[in-house]
Write a structure and sequence with these properties.
Blueprint lengths: L7 H11 L6 H13 L5 H14 L1 E2 L6 E2 L5 H4 L4 E8 L5 H7 L4 E5 L17 H9 L6 E5 L5 H14 L4 E5 L15 H9 L3
Parallel strand pairs: 3-4, 3-5, 5-6
Antiparallel strand pairs: 1-2
Length: 201
C-alpha cells in the first residue's frame, strides 16, 4: 500500500519553504497548509511583495547595505562621522548597530566571512572596495572598527583584515567582547570571561 502524502503542488511549496533560513520541515509544512487553507493568508500579496523586492532592492555599490538605488541612505547621509568606518559581515548586521544609536559613522559589509569549509575565500568578500574606501579617505585619521563575530571564521577574517590594513594610514580596532547585559558569571564560558577581562576599561 502506497504512503499517503500531500498533492505534488503542496509538496513543492513545502520544499521551497524549507529552503528559507530557520524554517525546518515541520514549520514549512504548517506554513504551507495554513497558506492554502486560510483565505486571509494573502498569498498573492506575499508573492507580489517578493517580486517587487527582488526587482527593486539591491546592495549598495559603496557599503554593501540594502538599497533601492545606487547608494543607500546611510552612504548619502553627509552628517555622519566620516572618520569612522565599521566593518560587518552581512548587511543585516548594520541594523542592530544602528538601532543601538552608539555608532555615528559609516559601514562596510563584507558579504560573509572566511570559511574554508564553505569555500569562502578573500576573493569572495568585499575587501577590495574596503581598501578603495580607505585609500580615498580624505578625513585624516580614519578608524576602521571590526565588528565581526567571535567564532573561528570571524576571528580568522578579523586577523586577515588586520594584516591587510596594516599598510594603510588608519587605526584598526575591534568591538569589545564579553558578558552580555544582564548576564551572570556563572553562565559564562572560559573564553567569554577571558575576553571580558582583556577588554575591561
Amino acid at each position: 500500500m502506497s504512503r499517503l502524502d500531500y498533492p505534488e503542488a503542496v509538496v513543492g511549496l513545502i520544499s521551497e519553504l524549507k529552503r528559507l533560513p530557520g524554517v525546518g520541515p515541520r514549520s514549512a509544512e504548517r506554513i504551507a497548509v495554513w497558506m492554502i487553507q486560510h483565505q486571509k493568508s494573502n498569498s498573492e500579496e506575499l508573492s507580489k511583495s517578493l517580486d517587487v523586492s527582488r526587482e527593486m532592492v539591491s546592495l549598495c555599490k559603496k557599503c554593501g547595505f540594502f538599497s533601492t538605488q545606487g547608494h543607500c541612505d546611510l552612504c548619502e547621509d553627509t552628517s555622519r562621522d566620516a572618520a569612522s568606518l565599521c566593518v560587518v559581515e552581512h548587511p543585516t548586521d548594520v541594523l542592530p548597530l544602528e538601532r543601538s544609536g552608539a555608532f555615528k559613522g559609516y559601514y562596510h559589509c563584507l558579504g560573509g566571512k572566511l570559511s574554508p569549509l564553505d569555500n569562502t575565500s578573500p576573493d569572495d568578500l568585499n575587501i577590495s572596495e574596503l581598501q578603495r574606501r580607505i585609500t580615498t579617505n580624505k578625513e585624516g585619521d580614519l578608524e576602521v572598527i571590526l565588528a565581526l563575530s567571535s567564532d573561528v571564521e570571524g576571528e580568522a577574517t578579523a586577523n586577515y583584515l588586520v594584516e591587510i590594513l596594516e599598510q594603510y594610514e588608519c587605526t584598526v580596532t575591534r568591538i569589545a567582547q564579553g558578558l552580555p547585559a544582564g548576564g551572570g558569571l556563572d553562565h559564562a564560558d572560559e573564553l567569554t570571561l577571558m575576553r571580558a577581562l582583556q577588554g575591561r576599561r
